[in-house]
Amino acid sequence: MLTFIHLPTIRLNEITEAANILEQDSFGPKVYELSNGNMLKLFRRKRLFSSALLRPQSLRFCANAASLHQRGIPTLTPLKLYQLDDPAWTAVLYQPLQGKTLSQIVKNNSAAWPDLLPELAQFINHLHETGIYFRSLHLGNIVLTPDNTLGLIDIADLHVRRGPLSPGRIRRNQEHFDKYLRKENLPIDSTDLWTQCKLLRKAF
Fold this sequence. Notes:
Elements: E1 4-7, H1 9-16, E2 20-25, E3 28-33, E4 39-44, H2 57-70, E5 77-84, E6 89-95, E7 100-101, H3 102-108, H4 113-129, E8 132-134, E9 142-144, E10 150-152, E11 158-160, H5 167-183, H6 191-203
């Protein structure tokens, strides 16, 4: 498991000087793409006193990656864990998961959706059966890798349970998934996906 390394502000600025900002909010950049292809993701503790004080979100991000790798699920690879000068901020340097998100694939070619369904249904069912509860499970966070396997990115909100997910959590996953489809205005229907997932659960 990675341990925290102090990253001074001056060094942070040097690292990100030529980087592309992929994500930001009112507090500034959140995700950088560095010149060597690696990513730097920043995490801010939102409250002075919270569970993140003892277990920062960046640490959970790294632990989630390790849990997925242990289960044979492709994901990003953390390289370094940083504590910034401001104690409310930490960061993770990681190697991204290569491939295209299913959102990118469907936006470019909606006709690809039926071909993706069988493998996607098996992938989602595998996550649920192995206790992976991912509140951000949607097409933008599922990647089709160059070797045609599915993996996960943006895994900070992922939780690993000891047993299969309950029907309630599965239902919440489906609701988040469908909400993303509506938000992104993707021209696909998820009905067949959930039907296939249900059939797989019964077979298991």
